[in-house]
Amino acid sequence: QVQLVESGGGLVQPGGSLRLSCAASGSISSIIAMGWYRQAPGKQRELVAGISVLTITHYADSVKGRFTISRDNAKNTFYLQMNSLKPEDTAVYYCKPGWTISAGDSWGQGTQVTVSS
User: Fold this and answer.
1) Which of 5, 85, 86, 91 is the S-S candidate for 40 at Cβ 3.0 to 4.6 Å?
2) What are the phi and psi torsion angles at 89 (to 5°)?
3) pLDDT tens sequence across 9-47
């Protein structure tokens, strides 16, 4: 099973940008769909963006036009480019295969994104 490690989070001012990376321990070419999720304090985990093996993308309404998901099969890495960040984007961000959340899902450590002045 491919292991995934998130990185790239940090503290950024409102309006700033960050690029998150999701590095896989093996080939991602067989991963049909990958999602970036986030969980803010006191809130449920939610799907932020998803990308399929055919590079079909999906975005939550709250991030459309600001976030871009991509995949680099050569580097076995998925990315989430986040622009025009808002304080409400503050959360721990995770990557996981699939675009839905199930009770038995396995999650990595995630990467913390904090948007604050």
Assistant:
1) 91
2) -85, -5
3) 999 999 999 999 999 998 888 888 999 999 999 999 999
